[in-house]
Specification:
Two copies of one chain form a homodimer.
Chain A: H1 8-14, E1 22-35, E2 38-45, E3 55-56, E4 59-61, H2 68-80, E5 87-94, E6 105-113, E7 128-133, H3 134-138, H4 149-166, E8 179-180, H5 181-192, H6 198-207, E9 212-219, E10 229-234
Parallel strand pairs in A: 1-6
Antiparallel strand pairs in A: 1-2, 1-4, 2-3, 2-7, 5-6, 8-10, 9-10
The structure holds a DNA duplex (27 and 27 nucleotides).
DNA sequence: GTAATAGTGTCTATAAGACAGTATCCG
DNA sequence: CGGATACTGTCTTATAGACACTATTAC
């Protein structure tokens, strides 16, 4: 190597990156939402090869002028119309050379939590996009998932369940900026798949600094009877300490 | 698109992946160990451009016939002689297009926890490899780190500290297969940077199912006086429940 | 014996689970 | 009023922090 005789600028100018192996970089999105009292996930039906007809995570190639995070934000906007101002976090990168028959494709998965958005339109690649209950995806639909997306979904679900324990993200599922304690508790119950005692949940949430703050407003539900409930908004905490622990 | 008229095999045969943007895929290693009662991290001094002379994480390009995990295992073996039978886990992927002046390089960082291995030899690319205390890396050495590696190290340190809470990985730092409760506690104290009360630590560790199991053996330390201590080995737990919480 | 380290027991403070009781709201 | 939902209080259990005490070992 004679590179030591060059300045850095000279070195960069003569550098040929194509002599190193290159791969296609993609991002896949795990867009979780709550619909019909169930945790649901956005999937597309693949309109083209490979894995034609199977269900897959939405995603696409990373452009050379954008970061992975920016590519994920762009895809989220394209698929759902939701801006990434909410929760969008990198999950993991999947890089088995045989996961895609087209070649070496490494895919970085991102998890997004969104409120009840409009039904997604079919994207321009003629792939029908829809939300499916996670319980069905992991159950009867698990055989119809493309690539290694079942594994990615399992990893993402574990991340979401864990994230609710120590990060203030549950309100991302709620459409309104303010919410009742019951609505807030329902998010935890649906994501964790458990029932929680209302009074203990309230005590815990109110005791964690910065988790929620009372608005002073009240609201009645759509039900027949019942007391009007206090409204809260998300607090300023970045992490929840002590965490809300998922019952074992 | 007329791809819908093709079988999948025909489609794959005529598929030209080069029409999509490609990037160079690399893995970077965060090799943590404990030396001299300090948490230390393996860094190399870069022998070539770019970022010549700066400190960087060891790593390298991913070959086209190996997965990201396999590339990380290979690099770990090359740098330290340690097999990946211990703890080696993906941390995060860094994909800012401007992080490396040579072009679009996306790097997947892995965290490894290793016992006190031999001093690493300079690798074949003439880069001097050494362990440095993490406190120095984040302090006076932080200005001399290449690329975005300071950020990666901060993320990795947070992961290691959190991982000790809920995963049985502390024994990966210990040279021997068996260890005393004091040695085990020192790992937590060094990684977390706190002092822990011995009796409470012991009670907690012994109450978590599958965290450690007694060997029935005893051992005396090298010190002047002192009672011989019970020896333990790692238990079979995959996760620690309830977790050991880091003091706030 | 003393100094040093390992291990046990216990009191207290904090947090979590269970659930009874009170407060509103609708019709 | 009754039925329904929201909120409060309290008893009990589990866990964590602080620290005194006992047990071994080297010298």
């Amino acid at each position: 190597m004679n590179e030591n005789n060059l300045t850095e600028d000279e070195f960069i100018a003569q550098y040929d990156m194509s002599k190193y192996p290159t791969v296609a970089a993609t991002v896949d999105l795990l867009v979780f939402t709550i619909r019909d009292e169930q945790l649901q996930l956005l999937l597309i039906e693949r309109g083209g090869h490979p894995e034609k007809g199977k269900l897959a995570l939405p995603g696409g190639f990373v452009n050379t002028d954008e970061s992975l995070d920016e590519a994920a934000e762009r895809e989220l906007m394209e698929e759902t119309g939701v801006s990434a101002s909410g929760y969008l976090e990198q999950l993991k990168t999947y890089g088995n050379p045989h996961r895609d028959r087209r070649g070496f494709v490494i895919s970085t998965a991102y998890v997004a939590l969104v409120p009840h958005v409009a039904d997604p339109e079919a994207a321009d690649d003629a792939a029908a996009a829809d939300f499916y209950p996670v319980s069905e995806i992991l159950g009867e639909l698990s055989e119809t998932l493309a690539f290694d997306h079942l594994q990615i979904i399992e990893d993402g679900l574990a991340r979401v369940r864990a994230k609710l324990e120590y990060a203030p993200v549950a309100h991302e599922f709620i459409d309104d900026e303010t919410f009742t304690m019951s609505e807030f508790r329902r998010v935890y119950e649906i994501v964790w798949g458990v029932e929680l005692l209302p009074s203990n949940f309230r005590r815990k949430v109110q005791s964690v600094p910065g988790m929620v703050e009372p608005t002073g407003e009240r609201r009645r539900t759509e039900a027949d009877g019942g007391r009007t409930s206090d409204l809260y908004r998300a607090g300023g905490a970045e992490i929840l300490y002590p965490p809300l622990r998922q019952p074992e």
